[in-house]
Amino acid sequence: MAKKSVKYVCGSCGAQYSAWAGRCSQCGEWNSIAEEVQLVASNTNGVKPSGRILPSQAVKASAAKPEHRLQTGILDVDIVLGGGLVPGGVVLIAGQPGIGKSTLLLQLANAIAGQAAVLYVSGEESEHQIGIRATRLSAAATKLQLATSNSADDVAATIASKQFQLVVVDSIQTMQAAGVTSAPGSVSQITNSTNTLLQAAKQSNTALLIVGHVTKEGAIAGPKLLEHIVDVVLTLEGEAYGGFKVLRATKNRFGPTTEAAIMEMDEQGLKPVLNPSQALLEERQITDGSVVLATLRVLVHYWWKSRRL
């Protein structure tokens, strides 16, 4: 028999506590700790495991299978991914609100729809809203399929049906798994929803693109487990209202993490910058003492703990 266990989890960083507190001692967030109920298995001494024996095969049999990647239609993005999207691979893309995540993914889904069956699932916007963006990006005339849902179980069942070779989920923070009572966006919902989608993608050999939100400190919202269980973590950085956007991989099981795609937004969506050096140096003033420097801005947040004197 299983018994219930109550724990308190921070919705920002995933820290666990035995009792409720108003502020998380790990990340410093106020009112982010919520109660969660878990089912804990009772003593199972003497009980045989209920699992089955796993089938296995030689490594050389798996290595002999040809690798076929889905090309995204944007060469710079393919380079960042290590050559394209791997069937059965799970990619998480994160970035600040308004940076262009949904625009980029709709562009990629539209391009891949010319060579494979693609489904775009939105849990944030209505079909009409996505249709407006698709018209602007000239994606309304393709075979790209669209669905709106907040159910992680329904999306997983659709992935497991093997009808699509690529499924885009926008976003994981809006998904809700059956049997989890907490609200969408909580640690439990993100963890369970991601595991449900990941298992369906691996078993059906379907490529999966997941959108993730970020916190005000610039970190990916949700538990750190989210970044560990996916295959690729991409971050889209830059200014939300102009300037260049940089897409880079902070984790990649299928390629390097040293590549970056520099893009800019126009009326037709995100387009790669063909000559970044020329574009960045075109306003340079050649004077004595001028220096050309390449830097990467990193957001660092310092938490100051108050002490009683």
Write the CATH architecture name of the largest domain.
3-Layer(aba) Sandwich
* Fraction of helical residues: 10-25%
CA distance, first residue to last residue: 51 Å
Mean pLDDT rating? 84
Give me the strand/helix succession.
EEEHHEHEHEHEHEHEEEEH
Strand content: 15-25%
Main traits of this protein?
globular; 24% strand; three-stranded antiparallel β-sheet; alpha/beta; 2 domains; single chain; Rossmann fold; nine-stranded mixed β-sheet; 8 helices; disordered C terminus; 309 residues
Give me the secondary-structure topology.
Elements (H helix, E strand, L loop, with lengths): L1 E9 L5 E2 L15 E9 L17 H5 L11 H7 L8 E6 L5 H12 L5 E5 L4 H10 L8 E4 L3 H9 L5 E5 L16 H18 L2 E6 L12 H5 L2 E7 L5 E9 L7 E7 L2 E4 L3 H6 L28
Parallel strand pairs: 4-8, 4-9, 5-6, 5-7, 7-8
Antiparallel strand pairs: 1-2, 1-3, 9-10, 10-11, 11-12
Helix pairs in contact: 5-6
Description:
- The structure is a single chain.
- The protein has 309 residues and is an alpha/beta fold.
- The protein folds into 2 domains: 2-41; 67-279, Rossmann fold (3-Layer(aba) Sandwich), CATH 3.40.50.
- The chain has helices spanning 59-63, 75-81, 101-112, 127-136, 152-160, 187-204, 225-229, 276-281, and strands at residues 2-10, 16-17, 33-41, 90-95, 118-122, 145-148, 166-170, 207-212, 232-238, 244-252, 260-266, 269-272.
- Strands 6-5-7-8-4-9-10-11-12 form a 9-stranded mixed beta sheet. The protein has a 3-stranded antiparallel beta sheet with strand order 2-1-3, with no helix packed on it.
- The N and C termini lie far apart (51 Å).
